[in-house]
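Narrative of accomplishments. A recurring question from our advisory board has been how the design workflow behaves on a single, concrete structure rather than in aggregate. To address it, we present the structure tokens for one chain from the evaluation set, followed by the sequence designed for it. No filtering or post-editing was applied between the two.
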């Protein structure tokens, strides 16, 4: 099965500006369609597509394109082209590979989104505290038995201390 979109390749020129995103996605239900429409030799392959890479050219389908669960476009050129080069070659930007982010519309929605983000940070900080505290306890037990820490263990203890400090800063910042 082949994907045969109507080609609308942009003329070569400067990298698109921020206003380009709206025009690049206009008429497309998602970022995947916007990219596929601009590629040559698109063919369905498994859960995604294969196409000719616009950055390095050639006749083989070296570019793998698929869609992540969140609607973002995933691409990989098997000739090692960078994603930014691939999208620029068809007149898009990396931002065009992601669905439009819906920002909270009113103060209550913004406060709710901020609260959710903070709760997520707290959960992550608490997980770090548990794991890194165990590292510190294990080191303390070894030192209490008058056993020295190996250089590797000493370095890991230093990492644990740094992570504990970072987690503490996050939790302390939650009070304000």
């Amino acid at each position: 099965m082949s994907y045969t979109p109507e080609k609308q390749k942009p003329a070569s020129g400067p990298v698109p500006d921020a206003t380009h995103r709206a025009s690049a996605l206009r008429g497309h239900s998602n970022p995947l369609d916007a990219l596929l429409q601009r590629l040559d030799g698109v063919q369905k392959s498994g859960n995604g597509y294969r196409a000719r890479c616009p950055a390095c050219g050639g006749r083989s389908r070296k570019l793998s394109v698929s869609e992540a669960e969140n609607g973002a476009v995933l691409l990989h050129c098997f000739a090692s082209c960078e994603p930014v080069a691939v999208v620029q070659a068809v007149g898009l930007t990396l931002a065009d590979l992601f669905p439009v982010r819906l920002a909270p519309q009113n103060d209550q929605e913004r406060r709710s989104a901020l609260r959710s983000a903070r709760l997520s940070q707290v959960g992550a900080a608490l997980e770090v505290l548990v794991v890194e505290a165990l590292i510190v306890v294990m080191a303390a037990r070894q030192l209490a038995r008058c056993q020295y820490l190996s250089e590797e263990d000493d370095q890991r203890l230093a990492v644990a201390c740094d992570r504990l400090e970072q987690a503490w800063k996050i939790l302390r910042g939650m009070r304000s």
